[in-house]
Amino acid sequence: MSDLPVVTRIAPSPTGDMHIGTARTALFNWLYARGRGGKFLLRIEDTDRARSTPEATQGILDGMAWLGLDYDGDAVSQFDRAPRHKEVAEAMLASGAAYKCFATQEEIEAFRESARAAGESTLYRSPWRDADPATHPDAPYVIRVKAPREGVTVIADRVQGDVTIRNDQLDDMIVLRSDGTPTYMLAVVVDDHDMGVTHVIRGDDHLNNAARQMLIYAAMDWPLPVYAHIPLIFGPDGKKMSKRHGATGVKEYQALGYPAQAMRNYLARLGWSHGDDEFFSDDQAKEWFDLDGINKAPARFDTKKLENISGQHLSVMGDSAIMAELEDYLSAIDAPALSISQKGRLADAMSSIKGSAKTFGQIIEKARFSIIDLPFDYDEKAAALAGSVSNGILDELTPHLQSASWERDALESAVGMVMEARDIGFGKVAGPLRAALAGRTATPSVLDMMMVLGREETLTRIAAFRALGTAE
Predict the structure, then answer these.
(1) Of 103, 190, 372, 466, which one's alpha carbon is 20 to 30 angstroms from that of 233?
(2) Residue 243 — pLDDT band, cuts 50, 70, 90?
(3) How far apart are CA 390 and CA 382, in angstroms?
């Protein structure tokens, strides 16, 4: 197995929004394969026809695309492969590794009730396991795999270590139902084998499944993949992450405004570590990621850490990259698209605001002054500044701005002249300027705003605010 090219996979079920835990599992598989020049595959486990929906399937594809987790080839539908699964079940039957079981549901339940009453194991032992085929009735049957009754099965797991299961705890699981449809346990193994999967990296809630799935590998004389069962993601309270902890779906995190590369960085650190490194690039993650660095204990999701990582990524991202992802963010929250002129002004503002933002939402909020157009609403605090005092300050500032060369030092000098002439502090000038330029009092630097807006727009906004003060 070690000499084969690495092939990993992610196999989500399309029964709801793509969970953040599924995204983390996909990321681990992606990093492991990409870091070794291998393949990363996507399989949609859509055999549960009652719960699988096209919308959920599209949600998985969209989530993978947003996270930047590219996969090789086309996504595989497990449902479409049902004939192949049935073929393998019949091959096991023909080899004697599986058998036909004619027990009815009523008979099985009667057995279990009797066992419970007697305080005995309810693990069903079919009387048809070693029955002479000549005694088989002309009736519906399932196909069960023959599990060993003695000894142990050892799961050699790269994260959990060797996990030993007593074989007398294994049932003869059903691999083909009486209607001819395959069970999940069979389909997973057949698909993994046929897709050439060398490493099965998945949540540790599947650990017990490994022992049962190994029965099929053994029955078909197929090589086992390398197993790595990773811990689940818990909320801050140490319980399995759910809606009570906040956002759990990938779509939600996109709508919350986190950059995709920040999510990849943060999710990589959930349950895996490389020394004390917290902030790193995709290339570093691909180089560093290994199964030995995965922890056994559940990882706890920490929104504050995610925000911190997100802010660090935004501060080093190129402006064009931020602009491209901002458009996707606005689409995700169903916000209107920016006009060409708004994009231009936002791009001009980017360098002065991205260093203090942690999400795309905060970038939009901080850059609001650059993308709004007159007439705009003034918030309560900004409107309260309108009046004779502010007008006097702005009246005195205006001619200085009209003659300034519109460089930062010149604008700072213009403001300084008003401060000196009136013997007031910077805040007394900046207050009405913020209100005039942005319609609010909490804004980026007034000098930054004027540089972004330019002379004409700055003077037009000041005039509009002065008119507001005069009207009142």
Answers:
(1) 190
(2) low
(3) 11
At residue 236, the pLDDT reads 80
Q: How far is CA 1 from CA 197, 198, 212, 219, in A?
A: 10, 7, 21, 19
E strand or H helix that includes residue 157:
strand 152-157
Tokens of 319: 């402006």
Using a CB cutoff of 8 Å and minimum separation of 24, what contacts does 57-64 make? 57/14, 59/14, 59/17, 59/18, 59/250, 59/251, 60/12, 60/14, 60/18, 62/251, 63/18, 63/23, 63/250, 63/251, 64/18, 64/26
pLDDT tens string 391-445: 999 999 999 999 999 999 999 999 999 999 999 999 999 999 999 999 999 999 9
Measure the CA–CA gap between 239 and 245, rounded to whole angstroms.
Answer: 9
Q: Is 444 left (phi over 0), alpha (psi -120 to 50) or beta?
A: beta
Residue 243 bears catalytic tag: yes
pLDDT digits (tens, 9 = 90+) for 45-80: 998 888 888 999 999 999 999 999 999 999 999 999
First to last CA, the chain: 80
Structural tokens at position 191: 């698909």
Give me the residues paired with residue 161 across strands: 157
CA distance 218 to 193: 12
Backbone angles phi, psi at 301, to 5 degrees: -75, 130
Q: Which amino acid is at 379?
A: D
207-217 pLDDT, tens digit each: 999 999 999 99
CA distance 275 to 74: 36
Q: Could you tell me which residues are annotated as the binding site for ATP?
A: 243
Helix, strand, coil % over all residues of the chain, rounded to 5:
55, 10, 35
Binding-site residues:
243
DSSP 3-state assignment of 19? Answer: strand
Compute the distance between CA of residue 458 and CA of residue 436 in angstroms, rounded to an integer.
9
Q: Is 85 exposed, middle or buried (0-12, 13-18, 19+ CB in 10 A)?
A: buried
Given the residues 240, 243, 296, 381, the one annotated as active site: 243
Q: Is the torsion defined by CA of 407, 412, 414, 415 positive or negative?
A: positive
Using DSSP, how many helices (H) and how many strands (E) does the chain show? 19, 12
